[in-house]
Protein 1
Amino acid sequence: MVGITSYGGYIPRMRINRGVIYGANAWMAPGLIGFASGERSFCNWDEDSLTMAVEASRDCIKGFDKSAIDLVYFASVTFPFLDRQNAGILATALNLNEEIGSADFSASMRAGSAALIAALNAVKAGDYRNALVAAADRRIAKMAYLQELWYGDGGAALMVGTENIIAEYLGNYTVTVDFVDHFRGADRDYDYNWEERWIRDEGYGKIVPRAVKGLMEKLNVEGKDISKFIMPCVFGGAAQQVAGMFGIDPAVVADNLQNVCGETGTAHPLVMLVAALQEAKPGDKILVTSFGQGCAAMLFQVTDNITKLKDRMGISGSLADRKEENNYIKFLTYRDLVTQDWGMRAEANWKTALTALYRERKRILGMVGGKCTKCGTEQFPKMEICVNPNCGAIGTQVDCEFANLSGKIMSYTGDLLTFTLDPPAHYGMIVFENEGRAMMDFTDYETGKIEVGLPVKNVFRIRNFDRDRGFVQYIWKAKPILVEEEA
Amino acid sequence: MADGIKDKVAVIGMGCTKFGERWDVGAEQLMVEAYQECLEDAGIDMKQIDAAWLGTCYDELSLGKAAVGLANTMHFPYIPVTRVENFCATGTEAFRGAAYAIASGACDIALAIGVEKLKDTGYGGLPAIDSNAGALNGQTLPNVSAPGLFAQLASAYRAKHGVSKEDLKRAMATVSSKSHDNGAKNPKAHLRKPVSVEKIMSAPFVADPLGLFDCCGVSDGSACAILTTPEIAKSLGKKDIITIKSIQIAVSNAQELAYKEWDGSYFATTRNASRRAYEEAGIKNPREEISMMELHDCFSITELVTYEDIGISPVGGAIKDIMDGFYHADGKVPCQIDGGLKCFGHPIGASGLRMLYEMYLQLLGRAGDRQLKDPKYGLTHNLGGFPHNNICAVSIIGRQN
């Protein structure tokens, strides 16, 4: 038996009311009113598909033995790197074993489901035992595009394995059709989109049913057997219509999260699946469809183990960590759609020494410190000579993960001098539960709510963009846990 | 502990430019301005200088690397010239190099000069840290600035001593206001306007809780010293001989960064450097014996915390001393009598020598409107880096006996 053994989700904290976007653009695009309700998620300036995949994956692998993971797949159509394996950065950030398989999946809204199916097949074939599948997208639409309202940012992660399965994989049926509802040429920054009515009727309306029909016939299931029908599709009623064709109860059609999040690109089938798993009961049959140059349909059956998997943010948890940000200019800034004068301090040259990055990849990307095997002192970074003044042993340190430790603020400031896209830049000394410490950037902070002693958790974020060379630097930052969030 | 250099080295000449936005001159002209005053004060000829030390921090902004910038400017006759850099403690580091050369007998007359030309960046504040940070620092340092890192002291100090934001802010503002009063009397100071405590407190934040007036001036300038032995000083006809009583440096060792003990509310280096400096100088009770101080007041909170770490105010007692006027011009231990970094200004490589320049003038009774009555020991505290990772240099000078 093969199936899903764990799940995790991540939706960035910031949400903008679609009415705000509509209001700013109504003078030129009054037709946007049709999509102007609810809110959409969007990344902080230091988040992208990779950082979201890291957070969703951390949520997914919580409580698992990381050393058992031997395959990592990452799907996105908005990877930070076109040629540098993004799954490899993900694996390094998670401090996974390096003796593992890995691959990126891209170039279609179906990349996320393709990665999941590939992982299920790899484990089923016995080539790998535990596969981590992450998908995330931060899709950029031009101002006043319908897609600016349609899209949301987010990601999900699933663990695939053969033991302690929470949702057994029953099979998939896939059709591949070169239906071009939108495309993004290799030299372009934005999608080009065709008419929505055609996409709804000829695309979702005809291609999704081919996959669902094929799956039901292949697995010999009927519409009444389906406990949850997942069909990521922005068009209201489209999923219900497809469900109706197969006798699936309209009441089991999963919410497309359009009202609270928006469509998270190639991650969305997985995002909706995680949301469904968070509410699922043993025995539920979940049918997942994934549209994009054809359609994949997958069927899962939830097992009793679902009740044992607890303490995950998932999609519902990260939707609850919400900060309304209705400053449209800030939204545009964080999507690099406007040009401001950030001053000369923004001109700094951030060329990355790849040799140093490689040597220190565990420290920089994985937040791995050291533990002195002589005195037991845990320290960041890992040092050649133990920092404990009463020890000072040379060459005694073993790896010690700091990423998942909780910490508290020892000192802080909000700095208006240094350049950041989120002024004032907050940073300070964090003291961790193991008495190690680090001077760290903060993120997702709120000015005026930071104080000494406030708890923080570490998150993987963008440090800098090297725009001259197209490189992105990542670093771990401290995210203050505000008191109201704790409650 | 070794004997140290107490009274083994005499300061026979000093010079200092006007600090400020010296748009019309570069580092070379600034150095010559300080050097000329210094050479005339020493009453010697350039050819008598056996060795020289140059201190600059932001080499990429002015003279470039190495010591050739100084030697080329002065046309020294192929003598040994060394460039030193130790963050904002660079000026004292140049002074220490020259002092040790004299104390060791390696040379008879040595020159120390510091210079910084900061106002070629195009913006306020110190230059941003970027690719000059180093291959690894360029990927691991958080996005910090000097005011932001020093501002951390305030939050930790409040937490440690249970001080309210308002009380600490007022004490910090009093520190700055006192220095503005002093700087107003100094013709060479960058900033020469008195500023009220209320105005300081209501200024916009640079880095919470530091407002504009909690930060020192970013200036162009140069300062210079000529050193020799007390014996040679005497042979040159010097009457009031000023000697070095101690120079001590303490450097962070990563314990503040990575070990559990430091709480962020004080300078571990300053406590060590000052203790050793008093020992070297033979000072038992600094609160009673130190006549005046120039502390590294890059930010008001730095000066406040340093009052304690330098061993003058008790730990947790700085605010009371500040509000009592203990460090004002008419107080028991006047501090930043020349205006300090706050108002005299802070051309990094020159600052340590600028502090010594004021102590030297005061000890010789040449400080004009700012002259204190009969000072015995002048202390300078020159700090480079940041509270969690820094270089602290403490020097004490005084009359020969």
Protein 2
Amino acid sequence: MAEINVLQAVHDALEEEMARDERVILLGEDIGVMGGVFHTTDGLLEKFGEARVIDTPLAEAAISGVAVGASMNGLRPVAEFQFADFLYSAVDQIISEAAKMRYRTNGVQGCPVVFRAPYGGGSHGGPYHSQNVEGLFLGVPGLKVVTPATPYDAKGLLKAAIRDEDPVIFLEHKKTYRLIKGEVPDGDYLVRIGEAEVKRPGKHLTVVTYGLMVHYCLEAAEIVAGEGIDVEVVDLRTIKPLDEETVLGSVKKTSKALIVYEDNLTGGAGAEVAALIGQHIFEDLDGPVTRLASPDIPSMPFATPMEEFAMLDTPKIVTAIRDLAAY
Amino acid sequence: MTIKPSVGKAPHKDLGLSQDNLLEIYRLMRLSRALSERGWLLQRGGKTAFMVTGEGHEAVQVASVCAMERGRDTFLPYYRDIGVAVAAGMTAKDVLLHFLGRAADGSTGGRQIPGHYFDPQLKIVSGSSVVATQIPHASGIALADKLRGEKAVTVCYFGDGAASKGDFHEGLNFAGVHRLPVIFICENNGYAISVPGRKQAAVKNLSVRARGYGFPGVTVDGNDVLAVYRAVRQAAKRARAGGGPTFIEAKTYRLTPHTSNDDPTRYRTKEELEQWQRRDPIERFKRYLSEWELLDKATDERIGQELSQAVNEATRFAEASPLPEPESALRHVYLEE
């Protein structure tokens, strides 16, 4: 066991998968000599050479489209996008091509590409280095969308994504990169895509969340524990496919659900989780299914007071928990 | 009209093409045309809801594939490329099953509209209907071949409309940077549906763009079988020797509507169409074969009868073949365990 941060976990997953399978290649901007803007690919160029660690032109349609082509010809490309905000330049390739490849070929042609990108707010990135893009991809059949929160999950899920036969959007919350440290076992392990995890058991109220918010929710749960509110925190880990069983099982037990997500309120993962709960376990509920999310503004503003206002934090979550617990 | 035999050394001999090679190209061009004509008939007769073909493009489509090593090289057709599909090895039955959206349609299982050819055994790559997205795919496929040290070459097809898109630029630029074994073939028929070339680009020949990507670009007469063959063979040789990509612009004309939902009389004149009908690549190649005494009337008629029989039989076969099960619409979103 070693304690590492999320950055290191991502790096190690890439390095181990490249060593294990020579079909794995990396494509992205500044991922070679520079090791990536966040250094997730540090040292990989030296270790695996420029044929497998490819510094691409600044061209997201090429990064994604070349990755799609290479995947159809036997490789396992991991395409890095410098910021999730720039995935929009690749959306045609991701949604029209990668996501539909298996379907349009009647199951014959797979498209095993991992589209990796750092996402999320709270780092003074402004409108184009802060976005939560997961809601967009949630509605695209053919894609899987993975949003780990811890080093253990990031490493195990990234390795699983690289071995997956279908395209995966792998979103790394950039604020977790250095902030979040955790134990990771030595050697190879996988975390299955599509399985949520109860990160904190509790009996009064369920908080369903993912990404950076997992940590804020855990903090909030500790704070309200002193007031006698016992919160269960469910980390979705994968938002597509959703682990319905774990979510419904938890809410059935606690009878109250608060969904906390950093994406815009409208149309995101929270809406899906709320709809699931409402439809399947309505009679078990003892309070309104509640969503706490970022406001419906185009993206995070740069100036600190506005960003802090827009971004969720532990005190906001504490308040939402108290309100729902008191219902 | 009587055809006078030509004298001297025949141009095809310089290309190492035998009579059998030439007759194969001719037969495939006619098969492509016959399938297209059948496709329109089936659509107009209500047997299928949509049709898109590439009548008039047969020379560039068929001759380019025949200049490659089939079985080794990879082809990325776009929706006009029946000629590419059949030259790469798809049969009349394969095409008719696809046109009629049958369960046994090997290209898409009835999921995509006609014109989306796919067969991994024949190294025909699946494409979408989004123009130009296949161009970066071709670079990716060639990248994988190069990484493994395989001597395969990838051929990517698209129309002049695609040359205006960002994916064209990003795909060609990437191929240039990595000197990838790929040939980009633009079937320039002068129109992106209704928008003429002069409103698409401020250059006369799109092939000049290749210079900006650091590899050769050539413009050829896309209705001239031998000109296309020569250019593609040269490009393939360069690519296989590690010399990198080539951009070939083949100028041609679409003799039929863009699709079954199009009325080209709104944007093209009758005179223009008639002018190009006189340059029909199949008739032109037939004249060449006759002039060099490679095709006599009896052989030509026999080829016509064989193709007609094959297409009729394929139509009957496809029409009798079951449609997909309704619930199969839910399958193959992800790999099935």
